[in-house]
Design brief:
With about 425 residues, the protein is α/β, with parallel strands linked by helices. The chain is built from 11 helices and 17 strands. The strands form 4 sheets. A 6-stranded mixed sheet has the order 4-3-2-1-13-14. The chain has a 6-stranded mixed sheet with strand order 5-6-7-10-12-11, with helices on one face. A 3-stranded parallel sheet has the order 15-16-17, with helices on one face. The radius of gyration is 24 Å and the shape is globular.
Amino acid sequence: MPIKLIHVSDIHFGSGESHGYMDAETGLNVRFQDFVKALQKVVNHAIKVDADVFLFSGDAYKNASPEPVYQKMFARELKRLSDADIQTVLVVGNHDQILRGSSSHAMSVFQSLEVPGVITVDKPMSLKLATKGGELQIVGLPHVTRHHLMTLEKYANLPAAQLDTLLVEHVASMLSGYYEELDPDIPTVVTAHMTVDRAVAGIEQELLIGYTLTFPADIFMDRRVDYVALGHVHRHQIIQKSDPAIVYAGSLERVDFGEEKEDKGFVHVELERGKTQYAFHSIDPRPFVTVDLDLVGKENPTELICQKLEKAVQPGCVLRVRYRVNQEQLDQIDEVRIRSYAKMAMTAKIQPEIVPSQSRARLPQLNESIIASPMVALSTYLEELAPNRKDALMEKARSVMDEIAAELHSTDS
């Protein structure tokens, strides 16, 4: 019989609350409640199917100092799993780590309390796990960065690019050593919180301006490995279908509009040596809806906005309305009427862009949403002014950002 494993990642309790409001009855942000309900759906599924293992591949919270209510809700679900005799494996992600204290992280409390059936991967490890469905081998890696090498004196003065190369080689060699110790007759899962070179990044790439280390997916290629459970990249995707399957579960709920088009959920894995199967299950995340209109010079702008909203708004969605008008049209905008057409949304943000009458020497593409990310702003700027040199200049810019990030990490350490 196959071992039933539930793969979930990037819960990020505390994120995305700017898109919600405070619930008067509970005193909690409604978006936080969405995140809690999403985790409850996964745990409900695990209990319903009598899962053997619940594997969480990193980033439980928004940061490594979570509010008590975030810890309470997360711990409550872990207890439900423990009570159902489901083994739980928690991988420490980058948002769970405290850089200044390498031995401390947001999940340390579960180690200190010795919660039954809960294993925390806060350092590279290989272990055998006895489950209801049989024995399982797990090779686990927490999030690793060049910071771990920079703390060692012999590496302290090496350039950032060389540190990255050394770290990738070190991780590959370490995994290879773990693979050699595996029993080829027992199913094996490798889990890690990292970016691999074949992944399509989601919003987490926008949140991490500058440094992020990418590992080659080839480090997981071994005939003894059946399934690779990855976290860190927010978009659910299958890097490799089999031999071994390499899968990102993706973030559990939409953090921001950068994930507007992405479904969210978890992966149910039927783990069996040589014939592992798996399927993605949606948790039916709250819809995010964007309405974009360029109304400069057009008649009846309010009517045009309302017509678009009538078609686009979904009940209970997180809505943003972005429209462009010139100064002469401002007296034709009826925001009260616009909001009446957005009332089915849970929250609605109206974001007008006023085009000045006197033209200014600027790029209209560089609006507020673009300049919030320096690299995206630079890309937009170069696309307009130097398209033939854009790729080369962007590569130089990334090198500069990496050097800045390395300097910041060095200062922190």
